[in-house]
Amino acid sequence: xxxxxxxxxxxxxxxxxxxxLVLTLFCSHSVSADVLPVNAAAFAPNVAEIRIEDGRxxxxxxxxxxxxxxxxxxxxxxxxxxxxxxxxxxSVRLSRFARDTFQVVADGDLLIPELMRVxxxxxxxxxxxxxxxxSRNPGAPQFEPPEDDRVLYAELTYxxxxxxxxxxxxxxxxxxxxxxxxxxxxxxxxDVPVTDFWYLSQAELLRLDWDDPWYSSYGNSNLKRHHAGxxxxxxxxxxxxxxxxxxxxxRDLTLWLDLELPSNRPLDVxxxxxxxxxxxxxxxxxxxxxxxxxxxxxxxxxxQFMTVTTSGLALADPADxxxxxxxxxxxxxxxxTDQIAGTAVIEWPLFNERITQVPATVIDAAGPLNALLTPxxxxxxxxxxxxxxxxxxxxxxxxxxxxxxxxxxxxxxLTFLGLLGLGLGIKRRRWVRRLSLVxxxxxxxxxxxxxxxxxxxxxxxxxxxLDETAATEVFxxxxxxxxxxxxxxxxxxxxxxxxxxxxxxxxxxVSAEIDRGLAIQTVGGGLAKTDAVHTVLLDQVSPLSEGxxxxxxxxxxxxxxxxxxxxxxxxxxxxxxxxxxVFEDDAWRLSGLTVLSAKQLE
Length: 602
What we know:
The protein is built from ten helices and 29 strands.
């Protein structure tokens, strides 16, 4: 039977003062957080982590100092001087706590806890993890925990008889069924997070799947984890690539693919390599891709092992211990395109009795579009309807060229002939002099008439130091073009694009430095694509000793992004490099690049 609290605990103001003093004296140490929040419930005054395992339920509570009266049965006897000799034994207080304060009910039976630990602490600082989670949504509201970070930490164990089908959690409620305190909580079944942080403000029923805790769930649809599906699929459309990404739990993958998973140990390095290769081969042919009406094969595929945390998905580190029952694998199949696709379509084939719906997301420059794939509607399609799309192609460089002098060659030649004719007429016979003067005059007059015919441009030695603005524009356009080359997936296409902005004599060295020094990595080792180059500054600009061009120490910032698994990772990096730029084959080109530093900005 589920019972609610009907009377306050006999705590007086003097008792709370004594407890406050004790907490002040003994809360000098700090603790580190393992659980990552995704909303303000992690900052509730009272926070509990609830873990359900074979034979027990463990509840670890941080109790706000201002709410100690509600949880008074957990306060140690040594801290309560005003009730000395009149306070019930701990066993009586725990029974009262289980009945009136925080109830844990397994299949209708009220569980009585054992108090394993109680001590004064400082509240776990969950702010950095929360801000990391909310960084995906810069417009989200900002939250702060209580200013007073003193808490009473209590750890209770509720013994379980067998494996109940459901557990009900009931927070401290008043006689009207309203919560007495603000109470945040998170739940795990074995090692699987069932929920993210959320508020516990009423009785909540948790249905338990002991065969596969992944599918344990609350009846309240708000109480769920960020990543709930066992299978997710994504279709990314980029300017030079279409990507099909699939996330699937290893345990579910074995239903369609013959994999040997270790049952009594974590996955080791050899397991990961073997499973990764098998998954890549399986998904390369699983859902054929049609781009602009033609079925195409992937250029290549990669795999990554993932884990589910309370802030979403996290890439598994090679040193992490991975449980075969809870680990996920992500497979990325890449389909290069010469330009952005017009249409991209896949037909999803993986369904079974439990997985009857597969959440899918189509993502392009305009943003994500969610879909739900079912056996009746298994097709995921993208059509290019973007009206304001601009292709990131490298166009002919229109930055300032070296100064030139335009010479009217026809006029120069005729002027020369005219002067020659006049010169020949000096001290000549009379008829020769007249003929020479007529010839010279006609040539000079004709030279004026044909001034705009047959002009030629003669370069004037370039002095960048005299025009730093022009040099900055040239470098900005070149480094932006080098960033756009990262959109190309195929090496031969990337080489062709870079050849438009890198000098031929130094192409191999400069292109290698672009790949090494300008690469912007995201979570998981993926490479981001440059979206914008800005805040460019050139220092120590000086002309080259040979040829037309200049050298400089350049500083600039590059904003880049990369999308995987439905999340957009953004980076802003400040670069500093030694550069040389030459005017070659009627275009400005990078002839030297040495990256001195690359610092990621907040």
